[in-house]
């Protein structure tokens, strides 16, 4: 009975909509997880959002669009609360000009949209040309989510705390990657709460917060004396609620935007967290958005990150050949994003053209500040070429454009341009010593006088036993050649 009523009601509504001038029965039902966007709402819902979106431009009559619908809705469910999965009906009169202006020439066309580098800059729109499966879409979109998550280590933890007096949240995890879920939370709380992640191998801080299982999220709210530990599921809605104790997430779409009501319920469906069915796979901090899995032409893989020990092992020893290194803060933004994007593009270009020139790596500038200062350099982000074997380095200087950086790399390939020698003894164990010891020393001496932090420092001093330092990633490089200086830091 009820089903019948519901069914006939649905038919009636569809007929009604079809009959109404200007209303169109698009591919997606009202309750679809796909966010339905029009020429009018696109700006507020997509272009101005801090979140990443994928937008399908379709026509209801198009066969490939109909074929895509189930996978697209599945992707939307997976990405609920994490990224926006939207659709524009280009057959509707109100949207035709808009679809044309977006360069749509065939249906369906899928484009990812994410915020530009700087505040107020245009969003970055890229065509998605991967497979039209839910997984390929989820992976590609997850990969496009801007990363505002800081990575903290034992060494830079105090510095992270001392950054400012905003609340901070740290996810302790066994994973080396940052999940789309955590990235989305960092975007929700941009400029409100600093979101960070720390690996289980960071023995001092995991001990300090008494972390017993992974993942565990800890909230440091300056207004409460104790760290708050989250013990719910790793899902968007409850996490958002937990973090909201320390500050309100940015409203998205912005509160003043009142465009939507008579449109198709645009705001909350895909973005704001609904506790319900958001899928475990997408919301678990998982390894899923791994670039390497994807066909190369779809998404430009991010640069490989080198930890301090690897930096020596791969690029700063007496046998290492030329490496291109992007020294950037672990929480990228602005210029450092630009650096990474450009290098990722060039690395990708080289690898697809099969002339593997030099390896390109991302390096945390704060954790390796000593390398930079040893070379007499300063700055928040920079590109260096280094060659340990030949004992030279060069810094990229000039305007940051892909073409310029490419020309610079070509000049290195051709042995042109001025190079500088590393200070004597730096390459090899010198580099290892410098980078391993640096940040700890600086962090300790930089600790400001706020009570919380002093307190932290004391605890660190008391609790850490020497053997917790047996970090496998550092073994071999640092412990192979212990110096007095290193030993001092082992105790820290
Ligand atoms: C985007 O982030 C900024 C903080 O960087 C915030 O002020 C703004 O409200 C956010 N906008 C939206 C639409 O969430």
Would you summarize the structure shown here?
By secondary structure, this protein is of the alpha/beta class. The protein is built from 18 helices and 16 strands. The strands form three sheets. A six-stranded mixed β-sheet has the order 11-13-12-14-15-16.
> Alpha-carbon distance between the termini?
73 Å
- Decide which structural class fits the backbone: alpha/beta
Determine the fraction of residues in helical runs and give it as a percent range: 25-40%
Q: Say which molecules are bound, naming each kind only once.
A: 2-acetamido-2-deoxy-beta-D-glucopyranose
Radius of gyration using CA atoms only: 25 Å
- Note the main sheet: 6 strands, mixed
Biased composition (Low complexity): 276-293
Domain Thioredoxin: 16-146
Keywords: Disulfide bond, Isomerase, Redox-active center, Signal
Organism: Microdochium trichocladiopsis
């Amino acid at each position: 009975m009820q089903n019948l009523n519901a069914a006939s009601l649905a038919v009636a509504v569809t007929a009604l909509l079809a009959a109404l001038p200007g209303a169109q029965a698009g591919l997606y039902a009202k309750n679809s997880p796909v966010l339905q966007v029009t020429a009018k709402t696109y700006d507020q819902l997509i272009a101005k959002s801090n979140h990443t979106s994928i937008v399908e431009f379709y026509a209801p009559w198009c066969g490939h669009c109909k074929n895509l619908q189930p996978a697209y809705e599945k992707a939307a469910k997976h990405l609920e609360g994490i990224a926006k999965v939207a659709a524009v009906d280009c057959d509707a009169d109100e949207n035709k000009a808009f679809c044309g202006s977006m360069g749509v020439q065939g249906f369906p066309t899928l484009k990812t949209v994410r915020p530009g580098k700087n505040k107020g800059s245009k969003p970055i729109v890229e065509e998605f040309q991967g497979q039209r499966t839910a997984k390929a879409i989820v992976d590609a979109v997850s990969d496009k989510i801007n990363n505002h998550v800081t990575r903290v280590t034992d060494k830079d933890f105090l510095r992270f705390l001392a950054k400012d007096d905003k609340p901070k949240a740290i996810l302790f995890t066994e994973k080396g990657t940052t999940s789309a879920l955590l990235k989305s939370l960092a975007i929700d709380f941009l400029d409100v709460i600093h979101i960070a992640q720390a690996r289980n191998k960071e023995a001092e801080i995991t001990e300090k917060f008494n972390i017993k299982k992974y993942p565990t999220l800890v909230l440091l709210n300056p207004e409460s004396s104790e760290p708050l530990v989250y013990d719910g599921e790793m899902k968007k809605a409850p996490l958002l609620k937990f973090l909201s104790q320390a500050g309100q997430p940015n409203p998205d779409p912005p509160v003043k935007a009142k465009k939507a009501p008579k449109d198709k319920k645009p705001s909350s469906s895909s973005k704001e967290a609904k506790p319900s069915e958001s899928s475990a796979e997408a919301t678990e901090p998982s390894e899923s958005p791994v670039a390497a899995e994807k066909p190369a032409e779809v998404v430009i893989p991010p640069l490989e990150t080198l930890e301090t020990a690897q930096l020596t092992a791969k690029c700063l020893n007496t046998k290492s050949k030329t490496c291109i290194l992007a020294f950037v803060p672990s929480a990228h933004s602005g210029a450092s994003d630009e650096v990474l994007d450009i290098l990722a593009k060039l690395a990708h270009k080289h690898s697809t053209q099969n002339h593997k020139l030099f390896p390109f790596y991302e390096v945390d500038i704060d954790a390796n500040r000593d390398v930079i200062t040893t070379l007499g350099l300063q700055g928040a982000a920079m590109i260096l070429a280094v060659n340990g074997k030949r004992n030279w380095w060069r810094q990229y200087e000039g305007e940051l454009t892909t073409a310029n950086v490419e020309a610079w790399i070509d000049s290195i390939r051709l042995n042109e341009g001025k190079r500088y020698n590393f200070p004597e003894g730096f390459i090899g164990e010198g580099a290892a010593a410098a980078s391993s010891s640096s940040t700890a020393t600086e962090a300790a001496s930089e600790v400001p006088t706020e009570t919380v932090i002093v307190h932290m420092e004391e605890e660190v001093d008391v609790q850490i036993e020497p053997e917790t330092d047996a970090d496998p990633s550092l073994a071999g490089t640092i412990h192979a050649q212990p110096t007095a200086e290193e030993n001092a830091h082992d105790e820290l």
